[in-house]
Specification:
Blueprint (H helix, E strand, L loop, with lengths): L4 E5 L4 H16 L3 E7 L6 H15 L5 E6 L3 H8 L5 E6 L13 H8 L4 E5 L9 H10 L4 E5 L5 H14 L3 E6 L9 H9 L5 E6 L3 H8 L5 E7 L1 E3 L2 E3 L2 H9 L4 E6 L2
Parallel strand pairs: 1-2, 1-4, 2-3, 4-5, 6-7, 6-9, 7-8, 9-12
Antiparallel strand pairs: 5-12, 10-11
Helix pairs in contact: 3-4, 6-7, 8-9
């Protein structure tokens, strides 16, 4: 595979199937390939799960390039390594209930704290979209739920660009929630410039004076995906996420796209 791929972690669980379906959709949107990764203590366990996953994807997207890998490693280490040159990594999580199957433990939290590429975390408490790719494409043409962008600092230029690209790929509006520190904070220049570059995207922007995590979680009720930047912080227990990312991974009503900020 080239760097133009989407990497997804599977483990045979139902939420991993949901992540697989969304990862395949994202690969199609990006004109990329799909790389299915299964982290196992023994490679002999992997063939049935990987074969089933690949067959499911090929039935839904016959022209999508698919490769599979069994990696003798922990899930976080395997996905982090296999995603080094990926366009996107996708994992599934049960939110408040933790992560299921062989992707046990706080895999999404740990991976988000160290990933070097965008990470899409998929919750299992929303119904799966079982419509055909053609039906989804036509629905998007008519306009669907917006992409939600949460902005918190001047270091979020790449995050904003990623959100505009998501809205463009999905052909839906973009809603921007900016956590403003002061009442008279000026409109974000990055968003204004991106709006000029993407005149076809309908943008609705507003400021959140207090409680950005709560406001974002509430706004995810009507969103297709929420996009935020992650500032990786170091602590006594190693790298961890900030409160907004942590809240979204636990309580978001839609998939969460985490974009690493390297500054």
């Amino acid at each position: 595979m080239t760097h133009r791929n989407v990497v997804v972690g599977v483990d045979g669980s139902l939420i991993a199937v949901r992540a697989l379906d969304l990862a395949a959709d994202e690969a199609v949107r990006r004109a990329a390939g799909l790389h299915i990764v299964y982290a196992v203590p023994d490679r002999d366990e992997a063939p049935p799960v990987l074969a089933s996953a690949a067959a499911r994807v090929r039935a839904r997207h016959p022209r999508l390039p698919v490769v599979t890998s069994a990696v003798e490693s922990g899930a976080v280490e395997a996905l982090d390594h296999e995603s080094e040159r990926a366009a996107l990594t996708v994992v599934g999580t049960r939110g408040l209930g933790g992560v299921t199957g062989r992707l046990a433990g706080a895999v999404s939290l740990r991976l988000a704290a160290q990933t070097r590429v965008p990470l899409l975390v998929v919750r299992d408490d929303r119904p799966c979209d079982r419509s055909t790719p053609a039906a989804r494409s036509e629905r998007e043409l008519r306009g669907g739920p917006p992409v939600l962008l949460g902005l918190g600092s001047d270091a979020d230029a790449d995050v904003a660009a990623c959100a505009f690209q998501e809205a463009e790929r999905r052909r839906v509006p973009l809603r921007v929630l900016h956590a403003a520190a002061h009442r008279h904070t000026a409109p974000r220049a990055d968003v204004d410039r991106l709006r000029e570059r993407h005149p076809e995207i309908l943008v609705d922007a507003c400021r959140v004076r207090t409680g950005p995590a709560r406001a974002l979680v509430e706004a995810t009720r009507d969103a297709a995906v929420v996009v935020i930047g992650v500032h990786r912080r170091s602590g006594p227990l190693g790298r961890h996420l900030g409160p907004v990312a942590h809240a979204l991974l636990h309580r978001s009503n839609c998939p969460v796209l985490l974009v690493p900020i390297t500054s």
